[in-house]
UniProtKB/TrEMBL annotation:
Residues 247-268 are annotated as: Disordered. The keyword GTP-binding applies. InterPro entries: P-loop_NTPase, Rab, Small_GTP-bd, Small_GTPase. NCBIfam families: small_GTP. GO terms for molecular function: GTP binding; GTPase activity. This is Putative small GTP binding protein rab6-like protein.
Amino acid sequence: MDSATAGASSKVSSVSASSSSTLKHKLVLLGDQSVGKTSILTRFMYDTFDQQYQPTIGIDFFSKTIHLEDDRNVRLQLWDTAGQERFHSLIPSYIRNSSATVVVYDLTSRSTFFNAFKWIDEVRSESGEEVVIMLVGNKIDQASERREVSAEEAMKKASECNVLFMEVSAKHGTHIKQMFRQVAAALPLPAATGGGTDVNSVESSSAGNTGSAGTIGGGVAAPGISAGQFGSLVRTPFLITPSAMQAASNSTTGSGGTGSAEADAHRSLGGACCGRGM
C-alpha cells in the first residue's frame, strides 16, 4: 500500500470511529417550582405541552441523542428535578458529577430570576467551574404582557457569571431545540475514549446501537430507568423512597438543628453571581 492510499485509509477510519461513537453527558435542569422545567423537557422530547401543571416529585429521567454539525453524536441524559423547597436536600446528589446544567427561571417572576443565581452557585459548588451552565428564561410567550426581567438584564447577568443564556417558550416550542443543541455543542470532547462506564463518557454504537439509557457510574442502571435504543426517547420516573422523602421534608420543616441550618444556608447562597446588581 502506497503512502497516499494509507493516508486515505487512515482518514476514513478516523471519520468512521468518530461517527460510530456517542458522547454521553449528564445534564440537570434546576430552578424554582413552576418555572417550567418539566414543560421544557416535555416539549424537547415529545413536542407537546401540558396545560395542566403537575409538580415533579423527586426527579424524572429522560434520554435523547443529538447529532451536531461537527458530526458528533451527543446523548444527553436529562434529569428533571423538583423545585419544591422540601426536596432541596436531595439536589446536591443529583447535580454532582454532571457535565451540564440548565438553570430555568420564569421571566414573568423576578424572584425566580434572583434565585436562579443561587442555583448556579450551588452547581459550581458541587460540580466545579468546568461544568457547562445555561441560564434560561422561560415563558417568552407572555413577555409582552407580564415580563418582569428584561432580556438585556438577564444577558448582562449571565455574562458576569460566565454562563450561556437563552429565552424560550415551552408552550410554543420557541428556541427549545436550539437551547439543547447549544448546550450540547459547548460540552467538551473527552480526554480519552476508554471504558465508557462513566455517565459523562463515550459509548460505541457498533454493538447493535443499544445500551442502558440510564447508566450511572460503573455501568449500573439507576432505579426506575429503562434501557433504550440509540437515539430513542426514554422517560421513566426516578422513584424517591418514602424514607428519602421524609428526610427531605424533615430537613426543611424542622426547627433548629441540621434541617434549619441547611435551609438557612440555602437562603444565604449567592457568592459572585447573586450578590451583584440585584
